[in-house]
């Protein structure tokens, strides 16, 4: 596990509530994504804003905590979609063995990520932010380990690059929200 963006957000107002304050929400999302993107070149600002806007719609608590939970719910849906795609790829005929093994590894990594995300949102919901951070970091590692498997053999092309990148960025966003509470 790598320490991720910790200590970045100490200056942020923790008790930031959104209760109907659309303008505040927009600038909060903007500010959060500006910080995340400037501290992690892997994170695309536009993607971050889009993601948090979607998560915001399912922010039943109307709080930063609710936004964190909604982001993790979004990630669960995304991971399920990735697993579905991997299964489809595995069903193709005549897969080269190395390629097939990479896909199988990715399948297992993302299956573990479903559990990790369940634990992450439970931990986050009960204010065990350090535990939540560990679980989300594990999912982030899954996305890079999956991608690395393909790149370890010359000539191998990962069919999952864009999905792994999306997952990596979603993890970065969830981690930075989590770190705001630590
Ligand atoms: C978000 O921030 C950028 C620069 O920090 C600014 O140019 C832009 O207008 C802001 N957008 C919104 C919707 O507040
Ligand atoms: C950032 O994400 C947006 C939408 O998700 C995409 O259109 C754009 O090409 C991305 N930019 C980079 C530099 O990847
Ligand atoms: C919205 O949030 C609720 C409660 O956190 C969750 O059970 C549900 O799966 C979420 N819906 C989506 C579409 O993420
Ligand atoms: C994951 O989320 C991204 C961005 O919200 C979306 O473009 C992509 O289709 C999703 N992938 C899957 C497999 O659900």
TrEMBL record:
<dbReference type="InterPro" id="IPR035513">
    <property type="entry name" value="Invertase/methylesterase_inhib"/>
</dbReference>
<dbReference type="Pfam" id="PF04043">
    <property type="entry name" value="PMEI"/>
</dbReference>
<keyword id="KW-1015">Disulfide bond</keyword>
<protein>
    <recommendedName>
        <fullName>Pectinesterase inhibitor domain-containing protein</fullName>
    </recommendedName>
</protein>
<keyword id="KW-0732">Signal</keyword>
<feature type="domain" description="Pectinesterase inhibitor">
    <location>
        <begin position="24"/>
        <end position="177"/>
    </location>
</feature>
<dbReference type="InterPro" id="IPR006501">
    <property type="entry name" value="Pectinesterase_inhib_dom"/>
</dbReference>
<feature type="signal peptide">
    <location>
        <begin position="1"/>
        <end position="23"/>
    </location>
</feature>
<comment type="similarity">
    <text>Belongs to the PMEI family.</text>
</comment>
<dbReference type="InterPro" id="IPR034088">
    <property type="entry name" value="Pla_a_1-like"/>
</dbReference>
<dbReference type="GO" id="GO:0005576">
    <property type="term" value="C:extracellular region"/>
</dbReference>
<dbReference type="GO" id="GO:0004857">
    <property type="term" value="F:enzyme inhibitor activity"/>
</dbReference>
């Amino acid at each position: 596990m790598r320490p991720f963006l910790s200590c970045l957000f100490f200056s942020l107002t923790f008790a930031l509530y959104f209760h109907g304050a659309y303008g505040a929400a927009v600038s909060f999302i903007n500010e959060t994504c500006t910080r995340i993107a400037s501290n992690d070149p892997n994170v695309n600002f536009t993607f971050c804003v889009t993601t948090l806007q979607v998560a915001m719609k399912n922010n039943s608590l109307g709080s930063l905590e609710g936004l964190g939970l909604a982001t993790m719910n979004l990630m669960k849906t995304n991971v399920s979609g990735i697993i579905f795609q991997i299964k489809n790829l595995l069903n193709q005929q005549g897969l080269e063995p190395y390629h097939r093994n990479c896909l199988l590894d990715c399948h297992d990594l993302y299956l573990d990520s479903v559990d990790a995300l369940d634990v992450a949102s439970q931990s986050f919901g009960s204010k065990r932010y350090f535990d939540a951070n560990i679980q989300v970091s594990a999912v982030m590692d899954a996305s890079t380990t999956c991608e690395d498997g393909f790149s370890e053999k010359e000539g191998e092309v990962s069919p999952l690059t864009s999905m792994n990148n999306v997952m990596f960025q979603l993890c970065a966003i969830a981690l930075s929200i989590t770190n705001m509470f630590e």
